[in-house]
């Protein structure tokens, strides 16, 4: 290796290391299908949580990128949240309130924003999401983990 390419390599490595230290920790949310084979009409491509980690008392948005092989005219979304494997929250939403219906064949984004109580304990949680059509047939079922951290404990005054 000559001196120029060695120097460029060192600069590139130093830059990558600096970026790693300066950027907030970006971690991909690992999504698991309830059925290990993932044989669902709706395929989930990823989940983005903002902010990550979630802060109690502040809004948190869960963006779920997905695709469907068939048009969906209606349905519901069931959400189950567990803390240390204990179900702590359950809710159901009309699918057409979460996304514009009908959902056409192809890619779509399901976005849900919620503000957690300020008394929500910090820690690791598991969210299970089930999407059903208007006939109550299951279109997809996934689970993923997310973290809740306490907000800033120091007053800004």
Explain this structure.
The chain is of the alpha+beta class and 157 residues long. The protein has one domain: Ganglioside M2 Activator Protein, Chain: A. 15% of the residues lie in helices and 46% in strands. The protein has 2 helices and 8 strands; from the N terminus they run H-E-E-E-E-E-H-E-E-E. It has helices at 3-22, 95-98; strands at residues 31-33, 42-50, 59-68, 75-83, 86-94, 106-115, 123-133, 138-148. The strands form 2 sheets. A 5-stranded antiparallel β-sheet has the order 1-8-7-4-5. A 3-stranded antiparallel β-sheet has the order 2-3-6, with no helix packed on it. The longest helix has 20 residues, at 3-22. The termini are far apart. Residues 12-26 and 153-157 have low confidence and may be disordered.
Shape: globular
Distance between the termini: 57 Å
Query: What's the order of the H and E elements?
Result: HEEEEEHEEE
Mean pLDDT metric: 83
Taking the sheet with the most strands, its summary is:
5 strands, antiparallel
Radius of gyration: 20 Å
Strand order of the largest sheet: 1-8-7-4-5
How much beta, percentage-wise? over 45%
The CATH topology corresponds to Ganglioside M2 Activator Protein, Chain: A
Name the structural class. alpha+beta
Q: Compute the number of structural domains.
A: 1
Strand segment tally: 8
Low-confidence stretches: 12-26, 153-157
Oligomeric category: single chain
Number of helices: 2
- CATH homologous superfamily (4th level) name: Ganglioside GM2 activator
Helix content: 10-25%
Query: In CATH, what is the class?
Result: Mainly Beta
Keywords: Signal
Domain MD-2-related lipid-recognition: 31-146
Signal peptide: 1-28
Protein name: MD-2-related lipid-recognition domain-containing protein
